[in-house]
C-alpha cells in the first residue's frame, strides 16, 4: 500500500468528468487500497479518483461511529456510483481534502439511494441518510468535476479554519 498525493484546487483534473470503470481488475483493487490509506492518513472521511489524479469513477468513504447521530462506522468503496433516488434537503458543514482548511454550509439531499459496483464487480445498492448521505453526494460530485464550494448558497458561511482550530482536530472529521 502507498499513500498518494492529493490533487489541490486549481488543478484542471478536479474540474473534469471521470470515466466509468465497468470492469474491476487487480490494479484498481490496489489503487482502492491506496485511496483508503491516503484518506485515513489525511485524515478525511471520503476521497474520489480525480483527487489522486485518477480520472475514473471510484470513491472511498470512511464515516466513523457517532453515537449522538446514531451513525455506525461505515467503510465503502463505490465504483461507478450513481445516485438513483434523493429526498429532502439539509444544510451541513463540509470541507474538502483538495481545498485544505476551508469549510462552508452545503445543502444536500437528506437521504439517497446509490447504485454502484464493489471491488468484486458485484452490483450493490444502498440507502444512506445523514452524514453518510452527505459524504456520498460530495464524492459523486467530484466524479463530475463539482466541488463543494460550487454548492455553497450563502458565501458568508464559507471560511478558512485557523491553524489553532485545525490542531484541535474538530475539522478533520468533515474533510472529504
Ligand atoms: Ni472533496
Explain what the structure shows:
The chain has 176 residues and is α+β, with helices and mostly antiparallel strands. The protein has a single domain (12-171), classed as Peptide Deformylase, CATH 3.90.45. 22% of the residues lie in helices and 32% in strands. The chain contains 4 helices and 8 strands. It has helices at residues 26-41, 130-143, 148-151, 163-167, and strands at residues 46-48, 58-63, 74-87, 90-96, 99-108, 111-117, 123-129, 159-160. It has a 5-stranded antiparallel sheet with strand order 1-2-3-6-7, sandwiched between helices. A 3-stranded antiparallel sheet has the order 4-5-8. The chain starts with 25 loop residues before the first helix and ends in a 9-residue tail after the last helix. The relative contact order is 0.20. The mean pLDDT is 94. Nickel (II) ion (NI) binds at residues 96-98, 138, 142, 176.
List keywords for this structure.
176 residues; Peptide Deformylase; 5-stranded antiparallel beta sheet; 3-stranded antiparallel beta sheet; 8 strands; 22% helix; binds nickel (II) ion
Q: Could you say which structural class the secondary elements and strand pairing correspond to?
A: alpha+beta
Number of structural domains: 1
The main pleated sheet reads as:
5 strands, antiparallel
Order of helices and strands: HEEEEEEEHHEH
Q: Label the overall shape.
A: globular
Number of strands: 8
Helix count, DSSP H or I runs of 4 or more residues: 4
Bound chemical compounds: nickel (II) ion
CATH class bucket:
Alpha Beta
Name given to the CATH homologous superfamily: Peptide deformylase
Report helical residue fraction.
10-25%
> Terminal Cα separation, in Å?
20 Å
Residue windows where pLDDT falls under 50 for at least 5 positions:
none
What CATH architecture do you see?
Alpha-Beta Complex
